[in-house]
């Protein structure tokens, strides 16, 4: 403001030196008064402008947080939906595993007559159909015998010392384990070499 006054004073002096008319002096004073009024209004407007800018900034921050929360919620919902779709058959498959085990045990008997052989063939066809249907849903048997013991895939129910196998290797499988896609739904019950 002091600079503006000094500039006005210089303009006043130069205008009085160049033009001694009263009109020039009156114009310079009128400009000075207008500048003072504008700067006075600016000082009154600044607190209101700052307050409004602060409120706008707070509203923008609140909007950004809400938008981020909404996007996170959508992402979580999408992940949950994908997991639900991926493992939708898990309950049914878990309930069918005992029936699958019983089919496997029944298929291990030795037929002694033609009637038993025919019955066994029919059971084998049903077993294959059931196995294929479960495989199409993503069910896979866990390989155990001859592999290293993995506590995520196998459940050790016995330990044995067998020179034919290396240490910590599965020797025998008592019950098959299964995975649904990338998730273990039943670990294999195994005997492990010490």
Detail the poorly predicted runs.
15-21
The CATH top-level class label of the largest domain: Mainly Beta
SS summary, helix count: 4
At CATH level 3, the topology of the largest domain is: Nucleotide Exchange Factor Grpe, Chain A, domain 2
Strand content: 5-15%
Overview of the molecule:
This protein is α+β, with helices and mostly antiparallel strands and 194 residues long. It folds into 2 domains: 85 residues; 104 residues, Roll (Nucleotide Exchange Factor Grpe, Chain A, domain 2). Helix content is 63%, strand content 15%. It is built from 4 helices and 6 strands. The strands form 2 sheets. The chain has a 3-stranded antiparallel β-sheet with strand order 1-4-5. It has a 3-stranded mixed β-sheet with strand order 2-6-3, with no helix packed on it. A hairpin with a 2-residue loop joins β4 and β5. α1 runs antiparallel to α2 and α3 packs antiparallel against α4. The longest helix is centred in the first third of the chain and has 65 residues. The chain is elongated and about 130 Å long. The protein starts with a helix and ends with a strand. About 4% of the residues have low confidence.
């Amino acid at each position: 403001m002091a600079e503006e006054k000094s500039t006005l004073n210089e303009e006043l002096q130069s205008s009085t030196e160049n033009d001694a008319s009263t009109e020039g002096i009156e114009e310079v004073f009128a400009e000075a008064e207008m500048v003072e009024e504008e700067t006075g209004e600016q000082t009154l407007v600044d607190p209101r402008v700052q307050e409004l800018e602060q409120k706008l900034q707070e509203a923008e921050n609140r909007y950004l947080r809400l938008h981020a929360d909404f996007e996170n919620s959508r992402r979580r919902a999408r992940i949950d939906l994908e997991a639900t779709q991926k493992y939708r058959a898990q309950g049914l498959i878990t309930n069918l595993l005992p029936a699958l085990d019983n089919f496997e045990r029944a298929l291990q008997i030795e037929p002694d007559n033609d009637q038993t052989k025919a019955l066994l063939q029919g059971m084998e066809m049903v077993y294959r159909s059931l196995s294929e249907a479960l495989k199409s849903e993503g069910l896979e048997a866990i390989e155990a015998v001859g592999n290293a013991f993995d506590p995520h895939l196998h459940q050790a129910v016995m330990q044995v010392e067998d020179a034919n196998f290396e240490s910590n290797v599965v020797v025998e499988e008592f019950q098959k384990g299964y995975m649904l896609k990338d998730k273990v739904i039943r670990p294999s019950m195994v005997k492990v070499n010490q």
